[in-house]
Amino acid sequence: MSEQKLVLSDPATGKQCELPVRKGTHGPAVADIGSLYREHAMFTYDPGFVSTASCRSDITYIDGNQGILLYRGYPIEQLAEKSNFIEVAYLLLYGELPTQTQLDTFNHSIRYHTMIHESLRDFFRGFHYDAHPMAMLTGVVGSLSAFYNAAQDTRNKDDQEIFAHRMIAKIPTIAACAYKHSIGQPFVYPRNDLDYASNLLHMLFAVPAETYEVDPVAAQALDMLFILHADHEQNASTSTVRLAGSSGTNPYAAISAGVACLWGPAHGGANEAVLNMLEQIGDVKQIPQYIAKAKDKNDAFRLMGFGHRVYKNYDPRATVIRGMCHKILQRLGKENDPLFELALELEQIALNDEYFKEKKLYPNVDFYSGIIYKALGLPTNMFTVMFAIARTVGWVAHWIEMTNDPEQRIGRPRQIYTGAAQRDYLDPAQRD
Ligand code: CMC
To answer: What pathway annotation does it carry (predicted)?
Structure first.
């Protein structure tokens, strides 16, 4: 705690209130308003938590003005270039890059928790064939809580670790079952000899009638996308996991709440929405018409994949994906993908448009990720599921951090009440 204080004065009473100011490793100073209600009977009002730090965290740092993203202090660009998803998962969970032995042990544990209970597989039969895979994911992830019971002690370090490993290992299996169910193909069991991304591709695309060779280029692309999506500090779904978890609920149920939140088009659902939008635009000639729609306040249309609550500069993840998109499409023999060309053109036109410049709206992580997922052969409705697989690591890391934080209390926001003033009940005959 620093000596700096924020002093507020109430003109009505003339009373002054001194708020201590906290400082993190990086980022703006934070006024600690914890005593405001207790000592001054006042709340703060901040819809969407634009100026509110809801917790302390050691996991991820974002500088939205500079376009910087750090996992445990390491720049995302370095991790995307030099690391792999399992190593990044270890880093996010445990705080440090692993030694070779630590990495081997972690990798082994994740590979050997990939199977799901046979009864859980049966749950999928209850879903109609056209259920959205995110709907299935929300339900089935929540159902893990029925298999790994609430009797566990959420503060027990061993229980936390086994929860983390199980969740990270099983989410690709559940995701692949959701996909197979939606296309009417048999579920494919995981293969523990394969790395994380290759195993997922195997479960998604193999069929019992044929041998399936995982394309290493596809696996590498997926692994890198997972690194970029693994965590993003207190985003809506992570905050949802923290809020749900703050009541002490079963941690698998808390993760399911995060999946539900991620689904929305303003959050992880944007990658699906971008592809739908590009298909709707269809041709570069139509771009000006859609840019005009995006700027029209009477039109609900927004340029999907553009803008971010925190980034007021290029999203560093988008920079990495954009560069990678060329390479991957070329290596997969899909370099002339018309949607990619359309996306590049749309990006250029928007970046040079006064409205987008003035509001600092830049492409975000979802602008290009869908193009890669499409090139890998995934249907549009699976894009957000892929995001959920990667973000599971972040959700789990935040749930553990929150559970072990001695300052943690149940999340319970307050409100400005704007409803009717207190009044007395009248019998029906007395009401006009
Ligand atoms: N197209 C057109 N106008 C936009 C857009 C957009 N994509 N994004 C923001 N604006 C305008 C918005 O209308 C507002 O204008 P005004 O000040 O005149 O009212 C201004 O820019 C600020 O926007 P906001 O909605 O107040 O900003 P926010 O921080 O509440 O919302 C956002 C951030 C990501 C929800 C929003 O930019 C958006 O809806 N983008 C499209 C959806 C999208 O790509 N989401 C993925 C986010 S990145 C992946 C993830 O982390 O989940």
So the answer is: Carbohydrate metabolism; tricarboxylic acid cycle; isocitrate from oxaloacetate: step 1/2
Q: Which long-range contacts (CB under 8 A, 24 or more apart) does 20-24 make?
A: 24/56
Count of other CB atoms within 10 angstroms of residue 179: 21
Whether residue 31 sits in one domain with residue 152: no
Residue 258 lies in a domain: yes
Residue nearest to atom 32 of ligand 1 (CA): 308
How many domains does the structure of the chain reveal? 2
Residue 36 near residue 19 (C-beta atoms within 8 A): yes
Name residues whose C-beta falls within 8 Å of residue 414's C-beta, 6 or more positions apart in sequence: 37, 43
* Helical H segments across 296-382, by residue range: 316-331, 338-351, 354-358, 366-375
Q: Which of 228, 290, 302 has the most ligand 1 atoms within 8 A of CB, as the residue to mutate?
A: 302
Residues 228, 369: one domain? yes
Is the minimum distance from the CB of 232 to ligand 1 under 6 angstroms?
yes
CA 89 – CA 183 distance, rounded (Å): 30
306 φ/ψ angles, rounded to the nearest 5 degrees: -120, 145
Cβ 317 under 6 angstroms from ligand 1: no
Q: Are residues 31 and 117 in the same domain?
A: no
- pTM higher than 0.85, yes or no? yes
Backbone angles phi, psi at 180, to 5 degrees: -60, -40
Q: Could you tell me the two tokens for 369?
A: 């990720």
CATH code for the domain in which residue 322 is found: 1.10.580.10
Q: Are 328 and 79 in contact (CB under 8 A)?
A: no
**237 and 107, same structural domain?**
yes
* Tens of pLDDT, residues 194-241: 999 999 999 999 999 999 999 999 999 999 999 999 999 999 999 999
- Residue 14: give the domain boundaries: 5-53
Question: Exposed e or buried b for every residue in 91-111, given b needs 16+ CB within 10 A?
Answer: bbbbeeebeeeeeeebbebbb
34 and 143, same domain (yes or no): no
Residues 118 and 26 in one domain: no
Q: Kindly state whether residues 29 and 155 are assigned to the same domain.
A: no
Residues classed as catalytic: 308, 366
Specify the pLDDT at position 302. Answer: 93
